[in-house]
Amino acid sequence: MWRIGATGARCIARGVSCRRPLLCVPAGSPSPTKACPPPPPPLSRAATVRSFSSPSDPADYQCVHVFVSVKPGTEDDFLAASLANARASSREPGVARFDVIQQEDDPAKFVLVEVYKTPDAPAAHKGTDHYAEWREAVEDMMAEPRRAIKYRNRFPATKGGWDYGADMDLE
Fold this sequence. Notes:
Elements lengths: L1 E3 L5 E2 L4 E2 L6 E3 L18 H4 L13 E8 L5 H15 L5 E8 L6 E8 L4 H6 L2 H10 L8 E6 L19
Antiparallel strand pairs: 1-4, 2-3, 5-7, 5-8, 6-7
Helix pairs in contact: 2-4
């Protein structure tokens, strides 16, 4: 009788954990009849190292979570207006991130995650044309007034852990 080895099982022959299923193993046998598949080639150091807490590039960012409930039937229009606002907002110099997330079990609920680099960036954002257009477009879609909670980032502690970067493709 034969069984298939489990993913992550220990390869007796090489003494390492395999990331792929082992091949045929005789039932009751501690060692595989075939060697574990060869390990994948190692990634370059540049591809594997990303520092999120370097004191040389600290990020002291304000993170604002805006909780929104929209009227049933307006979810698609709200999402379209919010995505247009987020696309423009993500290009503002004081914005590190501007995420739009929708609740899975209640599609009428959204959270806008706004991460600002400087203390005056939120006010600058609210002074933009795209914010004014968004606010006007979604005003009648609100099931209740939106509410915001302000946070201070703790991790990632570096700018590289938060910022999109000017050349980042977001869609």
